[in-house]
Specification:
about 40% helix, alpha+beta, 13 helices, 4 domains, 13 strands, eight-stranded antiparallel sheet, Helix Hairpins
Length: about 475
């Protein structure tokens, strides 16, 4: 594959004109025939001059970049089809098909009965329409039985993580309600209840599906999703051909982590617990009336454990340093979530680990070593908006309601206000909360900000006694919050 002008000048494709000029002058001094006596010095000088003539002119550079993207798209598409065609032929040459496909065939109206045929055409979630690299071909089984008759069915298709979990909850609920009405069906139902919480995601099927999905993303200029889809495909099935294609297309080595998990442990625990409960109920109901324990309606009542309240976010028990009279705030940038903001001096960034690559969770809080209780803690939750959908005000309020769902101690007592700037739109409001097992109250200010790529949720928290300081820090944080421009 011939070198691009960027490779000849040894610069990044996003490099500025000044960087290109510096790189050109440095290389031309090293390779000029008057200085360098190697046989190919003259040829390298010609290549450097040609690359510089194109890249230092903005119009010619833009035209060159468009041609480069078209060429790369055609190469990725052709190689993906060729490599994946050979891989599919090798994988499906035997009698083995998808996950127990002979037993789990959807009804005729539900679509094709083969997971492979589904994989060839699904480029969006069947339920919500989401189209990104999180899609997986999933089999979600459920069982319906009556006396000696048993029907095993499954939903098969491409689904996003949220829809996979929702569908599996529905499948397990159907199995619990209607799968225990017959003896053979009860055994099959117990097995279905142990299915992963996101359904059965077969590696050999999804490895090929994600490679084809990456080719579709390339055709539609969704290069970030294409890169993530190829990463996921190689996690399911390592393929030297796809590795080579990845390096040529994106100029880097693929990021291959551990094998993805789809709720296998959670599904197994749920299946074992629910099966044990059902068996206990059956055994208890078969016992004679005088030998079994009496049942009282009060025994079914439950109280919420007090320890659940500790799950509510609250500030970290440390204090920031006293602000400097000259420069009390420090400007920082968070490249993982593409935004910049001003925070009080003496604060540090504490990221939280998440399993979702599109989710970034970060705390701004004082460094350890500043003891006391007068402080403000900032929480920023950033979600990558791969589909580019802009939420309405009503949908934004629904997101806030979802985030605060179950936190009964939170109470909004500040007017809701919608905000906008040149780089984002959002809303702000305030609230108070009682600390668990304490008479202390906390002041909380909320803010959302969304643009074409990210949806950010920000919360500033501190004791109610320090409301003036908390509000001041929040206003500086709000006014200085600036997402990176979207091109």
């Amino acid at each position: 594959m011939p070198k691009t002008y960027y490779q000849i000048l040894q610069v990044d494709p996003e490099a500025s004109t000044d960087v290109i000029e510096v790189a050109y002058k440095r290389l031309i001094r090293l390779n000029h025939p008057d200085v360098n006596r190697s046989p190919d010095a003259n040829q390298r000088t010609v290549e450097l001059n040609e690359a510089h003539e194109v890249l230092h002119d903005p119009k010619r550079r833009a035209e060159y970049d468009r041609g480069l993207r078209r060429e790369r798209q055609l190469q990725v598409e052709a190689r993906a089809k060729a490599e994946q065609g050979a891989q599919d032929q090798q994988q499906h040459s035997g009698d083995q098909r998808g996950f127990d496909e002979q037993q789990y065939k959807p009804p005729p109206k539900a679509g094709p009965g083969s997971a492979d045929s589904v994989a060839d055409r699904d480029v969006a979630c069947r339920d919500c329409g989401r189209s990104d690299a999180s899609l997986r071909i999933t089999v979600m089984p459920y069982v319906i039985s009556l006396a000696v008759f048993t029907w095993k069915r499954a939903w098969i298709g491409a689904y996003c993580p949220a829809c996979r979990r929702r569908r599996m909850r529905k499948a397990k609920l159907l199995t619990l309600l209607f799968g225990m009405l017959g003896f053979p069906g009860m055994l099959r139902a117990m097995w279905s209840l142990c299915a992963p919480s996101e359904g059965h995601v077969q590696p050999e099927i999804n490895g090929g599906y994600l490679a084809r999905l990456a080719a579709w993303f390339v055709r539609h200029h969704q290069y970030r999703d294409a890169q993530r889809a190829l990463d996921a495909s190689l996690q399911y099935q390592d393929n030297p051909g796809l590795r080579r294609l990845y390096r040529e297309a994106f100029g880097m080595e693929p990021v291959i982590g551990p094998a993805p998990r789809h709720g296998e442990v959670g599904g197994l625990v749920f299946g074992l617990v629910s099966s044990a409960v059902i068996l206990s109920i059956c055994v208890w109901s078969w016992l004679p009336a005088d030998s079994g324990p009496s049942y009282s309606a009060t025994s079914a009542q439950r109280s919420v454990p007090a320890s659940w309240a500790t799950a509510t976010p609250r500030p970290h028990p440390v204090s920031p340093p006293k602000p400097s009279p000259t420069a009390p705030y420090l400007r920082v940038r968070v490249p993982e979530a593409d935004y910049s903001v001003s925070i009080p001096r003496g604060y540090e960034l504490v990221p939280e680990k998440t399993d979702d690559p599109d989710l970034h969770y970060l705390w701004f809080q004082p460094r350890d070593g500043f003891a006391g209780r007068h402080y403000t803690t900032f929480m920023v939750l950033s979600v990558f908006n791969s589909s580019g959908i802009q939420l309405t005000h009503a949908e934004t309020l629904d997101v806030i309601a979802t985030l605060t769902d179950g936190m009964e101690m939170w109470q909004a007592d500040r007017d809701l206000r919608f905000i906008s700037s040149s780089s984002y739109v959002g809303l702000t409001f305030g609230g108070t909360a009682w600390l668990p097992d304490s008479s202390e109250r906390v002041r909380v200010y909320w803010m959302t900000a969304q643009n074409a790529e990210w949806f950010h949720v920000i919360a500033a928290m501190g004791y109610l006694d320090d409301e003036a300081q908390v509000r001041k820090h929040f206003e500086v944080f709000r006014d200085s919050f600036e997402p990176d421009p979207v091109y």
